[in-house]
Write a structure and sequence with these properties.
By secondary structure, the chain is mostly beta strands. The protein folds into four domains: 86 residues, Immunoglobulin-like (Sandwich); 104 residues, Immunoglobulin-like, CATH 2.60.40; 97 residues, Immunoglobulin-like, CATH 2.60.40.10; 81 residues. The protein has one helix and 29 strands. Strands 19, 21, 22, 23, 25 and 26 form a six-stranded mixed β-sheet that branches. Strands 12-8-17-14-15 form a five-stranded mixed β-sheet, with no helix packed on it. Strands 9, 10, 11, 13 and 16 form a five-stranded antiparallel β-sheet that branches. A hairpin with a 2-residue loop joins strand 21 and strand 22. The N and C termini lie far apart (150 Å).
């Protein structure tokens, strides 16, 4: 009997403990005064009320930077249902403007508030939201004179802007400081401050791209007008300019020959191939050069499928340093300097030297012994040759007659030509 009573007493104690645990859980879930177990938070919110499995309240603006006089939309999340929230927005710079309002969170703990910024000056702003239950959350945004944008279509993940700050000036001369470089991720924007600035270098960690140019526009639209000067004066009561960064693909140019070495007068085709490591088929044109001098007929040759060709047959004999300079089309960068030089060797063409046949009477002196040159290229004639061949013979004034012939054998003598040599020699 005692054992049975002990069993009943133990079961009663167990049931009471389970009931007590369930009650504590229910009370905590309903916001009771028991211990809180928050699992996470966001922003800079401070939770001043009890919660269980609660997220910290947040407030955020719909943009990071605004035009003067623009409408700001503030959005809150994770506040208590139907909680009254006080919003206070303050100008952090001169503290001469502020805005406040009261909103009520909906049943999901969300709210929205809108207001217009002043249009007479620029500043950094802090918005603070405070609720009696959820606590406090803050966010910041700017209304600056220079806003740098990086469009998502530029192909780069981010960029870093270097610039100098010239204070409240109308020019970029005199005293200035190097501003902290600003990083902007793709599809976003960054305010460069409220003073005159001189824009410097722009870099990106994205391989295969280099900075191209700045254009101007509005806070939401790139008008495509190239920024006229890297110096942007301090504003006179509003945004000076919104600037948009543009990048282009880095290219490399290589050149090949279909006939190397060649012979003077032969056709030689040079092909320039332009590639971009970031992908795409480069457009634009190529100018071929020989030792730094443009090759006639091969200037500004349009690319086709990334290649351009130059065909020549009048390259002089000798060694030529052939390069190709890429003149980039939209979205691509000119190649850094000309292509690596191609050494094109052009050998001299051969001229055949044939001794002219001669006759004379017995006892007479030998006539002038001459030779005929053949094998000229490109319609040229013997006018491109200087000197004469030396063409001796074994015949003398008293050489035997009676059908005998005597050879005339030529050598180069004083013959010379820039693009020809002299071989073979044919006896007369």
């Amino acid at each position: 009997m005692k054992g049975w009573k002990l069993f009943l007493r133990g079961r009663s104690i167990f049931a009471f403990a389970a009931l007590l645990a369930a009650g504590l859980l229910t009370a905590a879930a309903l916001g009771g005064s028991g211990s809180a177990f928050p699992l996470g938070s966001s922003g800079s919110a401070t939770d001043t009320g009890p919660s269980f499995l609660a997220l910290s309240p947040t407030i955020s603006s719909n943009k990071a930077d605004y035009e003067p006089g623009a409408t700001v939309t503030l959005t809150g999340h994770n506040w208590a249902a139907s909680e009254d929230v006080h919003i206070y927005v303050n100008d952090d710079e001169g503290r001469i403007w502020s805005y406040s309002t009261d909103v009520t969170a909906d049943l999901s703990g969300d709210f929205t508030a809108q207001f217009a910024l002043p249009d007479t000056f620029v500043a950094n702003y802090t918005a603070t939201a405070t609720g009696a239950i959820s606590g406090t959350a803050t966010t910041t945004f700017t209304d600056g004179n220079i806003t740098a944008h990086l469009g998502s279509g530029e192909g780069v993940a981010s960029m870093t802007i270097n610039y100098d700050d010239y204070g409240n000036a109308s020019t970029c001369t005199g005293t200035h400081t190097a501003a902290a470089p600003q990083s902007v991720i793709s599809g976003s924007q960054k305010n460069l401050g409220n003073n005159a600035v001189l824009l410097g270098s722009v870099s990106t960690p994205t391989s295969g791209y280099t900075f191209d140019r700045w254009t101007t526009g509005t806070n939401s639209t790139d008008n495509g007008t190239v920024l006229g000067s890297p110096c942007i004066p301090a504003p006179g009561g509003g945004n000076a300019v919104d600037i948009y960064a543009h990048f282009k693909k880095i290219t490399a140019t290589a050149i090949t020959s279909n006939n190397n070495p060649s012979t003077y007068g032969d056709s030689v085709t040079f092909t320039a191939n332009v590639t971009a490591s970031a992908g795409g088929t480069p457009i634009g044109s190529v100018t071929f050069k020989d030792g730094g001098t443009n090759i006639s007929g091969c200037v500004g040759v349009a690319l086709s499928s990334g290649s351009a060709v130059c065909t020549k047959s009048d390259l002089s004999a000798g060694t030529h340093s052939i390069t190709a300079a890429y003149n980039a089309g939209a979205g691509f960068a000119d190649s850094t300097g000309p292509s690596p030089a191609l050494s094109q060797v052009v050998n001299k063409a051969h001229l055949t030297v044939t001794a002219d046949n001669q006759t004379r009477e017995y006892g007479a002196a030998n006539p002038s012994l001459t030779a005929t040159l053949s094998g000229f290229k490109l319609g040229e004639t013997s006018t491109v040759v200087t000197g004469t061949a030396s063409c001796p013979t074994t015949a003398t004034a008293t050489s035997t007659v009676g059908g005998s012939t005597y050879p005339i054998t030529c050598t180069v003598g004083t013959l010379a030509a820039a693009n020809y040599d002299f071989t073979p020699f044919v006896a007369g």
